[in-house]
Design a protein that fits this description.
single chain, alpha/beta, Rossmann fold, 4 domains, about 55% helix, RNA-binding
Length: about 600
RNA sequence: GCAGCUGUAGCUCAACUGGAUAGAGCGUCGCACUACGGAUGCGAAGGUUUGGGGUUCGACUCCCUACAGCUGCACCA
């Protein structure tokens, strides 16, 4: 019988896109062969510190403990039972108290590089993880009639990246912009719109004018009860379908959405649907009915509320699903939304990329929906609050302008582009004007996105212009620069990245820098899986940063443009794969790249 | 008052949710190279992971406790 070569093992199987998963499965098999209780044994293979190897299995220790065995002896037994092809593809050692370390042989590394040479191949490899699942991602979700400010940045940026990651991993993703286009504020706004619309200001910046009008209406209502009454009348008229008020409301919505779109275009944000609160206006009646029928909701102080007796806090803190005046609130529409997402989109999961301050609301919402669906025999989708912290200024307080206003997202992004422009003008004097403009946009907005994404989303983060655009350390510019440098090599050598005719001549990887870079490249799959499973893009950022670092080290030590065609070919292959992972990864984060900068 | 989140090097952040000697960048100090793009690379110093207990082969991670900061708690979304 012909023994499979390492090349066949690593290169031949699509499942081996994720090598950690491959070794995990191999250990599972070995466990069964050795007579272990495979159901109880989780190998826990993950990427390792390079000084130990490429991957490490941690699962032997807890299993050995449960079954009262010696961890090291058990580990040795498992290693011996691994298939010959796995043992041929890597050096395997048992270390410390009972870790199993896998270090890929150079030939196996090279084989992986040959197999995964295009975005399509990466995508095919990754897409097995979430195939068949439908995920609704609820993100951005600003209110109409208001300009987006810095507080809206994180949801848009993080939500977009998570959507891309899920889609790349094979999920069917519905990106839903759940805009706040319904509510009591429209009474005051319409009242002021009818009396004090400044057409010149409206033509200049309609959203700013709406925002001003709302303040006018709000102040007037506060000052004069008669005005408040009139505003409430306007709201009632809107809700009962009055043609004039409906037309105004529609205009507000349309103007708002097209203004949001300008920002989304800059950030690479794209929605599949924009179903705002108004869409669910006629769907809340069913929610009240069902919740009451199944005994979850009851009247309290005139309002319809849900308590959760088993919960330490929500046994007393009500979830208010209908106000005492009979009107819906955001709990009502959020519940109707979950139902719609299940019935219409057949969502297996719905995730909410919202500020962590909404934690209580989300918990109550999810608990209520879960019980409601169980009682009515519906499948409960996975519901998750993808929470994130606040953007802080350098004083540690929420980021504001000098006079205490919210910073407009539009202004923030244009300042980022301006700052990037100053840098481009300084560093890249030889590039033509229109190219410099594009580079400034990509670097400027990319820096804002990356600064947000590269940090663990659950904590607040400090916004610092200098750190963000300073181009050193874990920043967008460092990664974009690495991309530009790789591209420059191909330009100079008049080669095309991933040219298989060239790569066929490659000799085996040899230098420490080549091997180290190749090892990092193969970890791409793991980084994507980690970021996707945890819904935390910063894991991917960290990986890309380390990859760019490995490349820079390689680049400084190993010249690509050498005379020996076999050496040149293998280094070109490394450059091509580095480029592929950087570009694919940056795209998954929602960033664009440039050829030169 | 109740609850949630956070506390890691001078500063800004990681640490794959219990794994091996807690890692980066900035700043500081030192080094390399007329470079296939210097928006570079290599190195040094810098830590009682807020304090105190506990759980176990193993704890930044889990539990208890104290302290500090942020946030949320009935009709705004």
């Amino acid at each position: 019988m012909r023994r499979p070569s390492p090349q066949r093992l690593i290169g031949g199987m699509h499942a081996s896109f994720n090598l950690a998963a491959l070794f995990d499965a191999a250990l599972k098999t070995a466990a069964t062969a050795t007579g272990l209780d495979a159901a109880d044994f989780a190998p826990e293979v993950r990427t390792a510190d390079p000084k130990h190897g490429d991957f490490q299995a941690n699962g032997v220790l807890p299993y050995a403990k449960r079954t009262k065995q010696t961890p090291r002896a058990l580990a040795e037994k498992l290693v011996a039972a691994l298939p010959a092809d796995v043992r041929e593809a890597c050096a395997i050692t048992v270390a410390g108290p009972g870790f199993i370390n896998f270090t890929l042989q150079p030939a196996a590394l090279q084989s992986w590089l040959r197999t995964f040479s295009t975005r399509e191949q990466l995508s095919a490899g990754a897409a097995t993880a979430y195939s068949g699942q439908t995920w609704v991602v609820d993100y951005s979700s600003p209110n109409t009639a208001k300009q987006m400010h810095v507080g809206h940045l994180r949801s848009a940026v993080i939500g977009e990246s998570i959507s891309r990651l899920l889609a790349f991993s094979g999920a069917k993703v519905i990106r839903d912009n759940h805009i706040g286009d319904w509510g009591t504020q429209f009474g005051k706004l319409i009242w002021a719109y009818k009396r004090q619309l400044d057409t010149a200001a409206f033509a200049e910046d309609p959203l700013a004018e709406f925002e001003r009008l709302y303040k006018v209406g709000n102040n007037a209502s506060d000052a004069d009860p008669a005005v408040l009454k009139e505003a409430q009348q306007e709201l009632v008229k809107l809700q009962s379908g009055d043609p004039e008020n409906t037309a105004i409301w529609k205009e507000i919505g349309e103007v708002s959405v097209s203004s949001f779109q300008q920002i989304y275009d800059l950030l690479g944000v794209r929605f599949d649907t924009t179903l705002g609160e108004s869409f669910y206006n006629d769907k809340v009646g069913r929610v009240y009915q069902e919740l009451t029928d199944c005994g979850l909701a009851s009247e309290s102080q005139g309002a319809l509320v849900v308590f959760h007796p088993e919960h330490p806090r929500f046994k007393d803190q009500p979830f208010l699903v209908r106000k005492s005046d009979g009107a819906a609130n955001y709990a009502s529409t959020d519940l109707a939304t979950i139902l719609y997402r299940r019935e219409h989109f057949h969502a297996d999961a719905a995730i909410y990329v919202i500020d962590s301050r909404q934690g209580d609301h989300c918990q109550q919402l999810f608990l209520t929906a879960q019980k409601w669906f169980e009682k009515t025999g519906r499948k409960v989708p996975r519901l998750e609050h993808v929470a994130f912290g606040t953007v802080l200024g350098e004083d540690g307080r929420p980021l504001k302008t000098r006079n205490g206003d919210n910073i407009k997202l539009k202004d923030l992004l244009s300042e980022a582009v301006e700052r990037a422009r100053r840098l481009v003008d300084e560093k890249s004097t030889d590039l033509p004007e229109d190219e410099r403009r594009v580079i400034s946009e990509v670097v400027g907005t990319g820096s804002v996105q990356y600064a947000d994404l590269s940090q663990n989303r659950s904590s607040d983060y400090l916004f610092s212009w200098d750190k963000m655009i300073s181009l050193e350390g874990n920043t967008a510019a460092y990664l974009l620069y690495a991309v530009a440098r790789v591209r420059s090599i191909f330009r100079k050598l008049e080669a095309v990245p991933g040219d298989s005719a060239v790569e066929a001549d490659a000799s085996p990887l040899e230098t420490p820098e080549e091997l180290s870079l190749a090892r990092k490249v193969t970890k791409f799959s793991d980084a994507v899986a980690l970021a996707t499973n945890q819904l935390r893009p910063h894991f991917l950022c960290l990986y890309l940063y380390e990859l760019a670092g490995e490349f820079s080290t390689f680049y400084a030590a190993n010249k690509v443009a050498v005379d020996d065609p076999a050496v040149r070919a293998r280094r070109l292959m490394l450059c091509a794969r580095t480029l592929l992972m950087l570009e694919t990864g940056l795209d998954l984060l929602g960033l664009r790249t440039v050829n030169r900068m």
